[in-house]
Structure formats: structure tokens, C-alpha cells
Design goal:
Strand order of the largest sheet: 1-2
Shape: globular
Helix content: 25-40%
């Protein structure tokens, strides 16, 4: 599991149809730190100012991996999982795609 491998998972749900319980269940614990929602893709962009520094400053469990205090505490791999089902609709899928390109 991600917890057993010291992987922090941040989740972001966009729109009105999100399943908050599923979103929080996927995120690392506590969900109040690792799970976020946005009303639309315009407001989701603002979350990068909140989540970015948190990702950058995650403290590794093993303090021997701490780099010099000149920038981020560690590098991060970032992955996006998006809904491509027909329920999202063509226009909303295009919004997701545009959001990720920006």
C-alpha cells in the first residue's frame, strides 16, 4: 500500500458530483491535510498555491534523507487520474485536459 511505502497521496475533486468519502479514503491521513475540493477548474488552479508547498515540504520519515535547507525538502512524482467516462461529458473532459496542460 502507499502507506507502507511512505507515499503521500493528495486528492483533489472538482465539481459537484464528487464522492467526498471516496476522495478522502484515497488520500493519505489525515484527510484534512491531503484531500481538497474545488467547485470548478478555475478555482482548482488556486489550490496549486496551497498544495505545492505542502508537497515540496513533506518531511521524509528517515531524516538522513533531508537535503540542505535551500529549497524543497524532497522531489515529488506527480500523477493525475482523470475521469474519462461518458458521465463527465465531452465539454467537461476538454476542461480537464486544458487544466492539466496549463
Amino acid at each position: 500500500t502507499t502507506q507502507n511505502n511512505d507515499i503521500q497521496v493528495y486528492t483533489v475533486g472538482v465539481g459537484q458530483g464528487i464522492n467526498k468519502q471516496e476522495l478522502e479514503g484515497t488520500a493519505s491521513s489525515p484527510a484534512t491535510r491531503y484531500s481538497y475540493t474545488a467547485d470548478n477548474f478555475d478555482s482548482a488552479g488556486a489550490l496549486s498555491n496551497i498544495i505545492g508547498p505542502k508537497i515540496c515540504n513533506e518531511v521524509p520519515r528517515d531524516a538522513s534523507f533531508l537535503p540542505p535547507a535551500t529549497g524543497c525538502l524532497q522531489k515529488a512524482d506527480v500523477m493525475f487520474l482523470i475521469d474519462s467516462s461518458s458521465s463527465i461529458g465531452k465539454d467537461n473532459f476538454q476542461k480537464v485536459e486544458d487544466f492539466l496542460k496549463d
